[in-house]
Amino acid sequence: MLQLKELKPQAGARKNKHRVGRGQGSGSGCTSGRGANGARARSGYTTKPYHEGGQTPLSRRVPKRGFIHATKTEYQIVNVRDLAGLNTDREIDAAVLFEAGLIHSAVGPVKVLGDGELTKPVVVKADAFSAKAREKIKTVKLTREK
Questions:
Q1: Structural domain count of the chain
Q2: pLDDT score of 89
Q3: 33, 83, 87, 105: least buried by Cβ within 10 Å?
Q4: pLDDT at 1 over 90
Q5: Would 97 be classed as within a structural domain?
Q6: Could you tell me if residue 61 is inside a domain?
Q7: pLDDT tens digit string along 71-92?
């Protein structure tokens, strides 16, 4: 039976640390494997991740098209027919929609659109409603109350 004290790493799995700058005879003395002079031979040298030397950077080579709005709000879309398919008696909010798999994040803003029909009155809490969706939700609620 194998004992814990007998466990050893596989052959070649552990290498000895290569100590640089310890004389000419070691093979990595003098410049310590960094080559001759220049910024790369100095300690603390770093380049920015997007730096490409003298080559025109990718961000400048790629064509730019259109306009990207910096503060645009990207809503998660839910239709009225999706609300009708939910079997819940509680208030429908982002958490309920996320649990049902209708939206991809419980945190982001939600907008309800008016595609489909509602059969029962529901209480919906969302960040935005289309005019059709608002009308359909209200009419079902009003017809149910009378």
A1: 1
A2: 83
A3: 87
A4: no
A5: yes
A6: no
A7: 999 999 999 999 988 888 889 9
Alpha-carbon distance 54 to 77, whole Å? 46
Domain encompassing residue 129: 76-145
Vertex 9 angle, CA 6 and 13, to 5°: 165
In this structure, what CATH number is given to the domain that contains residue 112? 3.100.10.10
3-state helix, strand, coil split of the chain in percent (to 5) is: 25, 10, 65
How many residues are there in the chain? 146
Kindly state the tokens that stand for 91. Answer: 């208030």
Q: Is residue 52 included in any domain, yes or no?
A: no
For the record, the structure tokens of 130 come out as 């289309």
Is 78:111 a contact under the CB 8 Å cutoff? Answer: yes
Q: List C-alpha distances in Å: 79 to 100, 106, 115, 124, 132.
A: 13, 16, 5, 12, 10
pLDDT in tens, 88-126: 888 999 999 999 999 999 999 999 999 999 888 889 999
